[in-house]
Specification:
By secondary structure, the chain is of the alpha+beta class. It has two domains: about 90 residues, Glutaredoxin, CATH 3.40.30.10; about 100 residues, Glutathione S-transferase Yfyf (Class Pi), Chain A, domain 2 (Up-down Bundle). The chain contains eight helices and four strands; from the N terminus they run βαβαββαααααα. The protein has a four-stranded mixed β-sheet, covered by helices on one side. α1 packs parallel to α3. The structure holds glutathione. The site of glutathione has 14 residues, from α3 and α4. The site of glutathione (GSH) has 14 residues, from α3 and α4.
């Protein structure tokens, strides 16, 4: 059994944030596939055993079970000395963007993708609201990246791995990614990090949502 075990599925960008970190840090890890689309994360068993919040990712390491991608990324950065902060100011900056990501960026982007791509709701007032919120958050990130290669400056940190998590799903996001030039260049920079892989290459994929 690998030292690090990640409860995840390939469609989950939140899981990808952690899978990518594990891969970039060359840590010995293995995925444990969770049947999210058939409600596994909603079962009392999953909540009691793995995550009371009813979510992936969950990382198991050295007898610990960790949840929330931001916390897991922080744990791995501390454990490996990679992609973490080198001073207090940078630590605050990393957390500022991880919180923005969890609240506005990933939250809107991932929910929109779920509704349109997997639940197939079609366009509704909810998807319109989420798309507007996503585009607004993307404008903020695009502007932020205008004068720097990575979110907190000259090198990639866990803030980049968190924020970029969903973007490689491309067309599945149903937002005009190509309109955001600085985001596009930043995605290429992250992609160029040694060991980068696409989420569908890194984690197992199940049959999806029954129609
Ligand atoms: N803020 C959490 C979000 C995790 C999350 O929303 N995970 C989704 C899959 S990408 C999930 O498990 N959702 C289960 C549900 O909503 O029932 C994190 O970053 O880990």
């Amino acid at each position: 059994m690998a030292d690090y075990r990640l409860w995840c599925m390939a469609e989950s960008g939140n899981s990808y944030k952690v899978a990518l970190m594990l891969e970039l840090c060359r840590l010995p890890w293995e995925p444990v596939w969770v049947d999210f689309f058939h409600g596994e994360t909603r079962t009392p068993d999953y909540r009691a055993k793995f995550n009371e919040m009813g979510e992936v990712p969950v990382l198991e390491h050295a007898g610990l079970r960790l949840t929330q991608s931001g916390v897991i990324l922080d744990y791995l950065a501390t454990a490996t000395g990679q992609f973490g902060a080198t001073n207090e100011e940078e630590r605050r900056e990393i957390w500022r963007w991880i919180l923005f990501d969890n609240h506005k960026f990933t939250a809107s982007l991932a929910t929109l993708r779920y509704l349109v791509q997997f639940a197939r709701t079609g366009e509704t007032p909810v998807t319109e609201f989420l798309r507007a919120r996503t585009v607004n958050a993307m404008k903020i990130v695009d502007h932020h990246l205008e004068d720097k290669p990575f979110v907190t400056g000259q090198r990639a940190t866990i803030a980049d791995l968190s924020m970029v998590g969903y973007l490689y799903y491309g067309d599945e996001l149903t937002v005009p990614l190509e309109d955001f030039v600085h985001i596009g260049r930043w995605m290429e920079r992250v992609k160029a990090l040694p060991g980068w892989k696409h989420p569908y290459e890194l984690m197992p994929r199940g049959p999806g949502l029954a129609r």
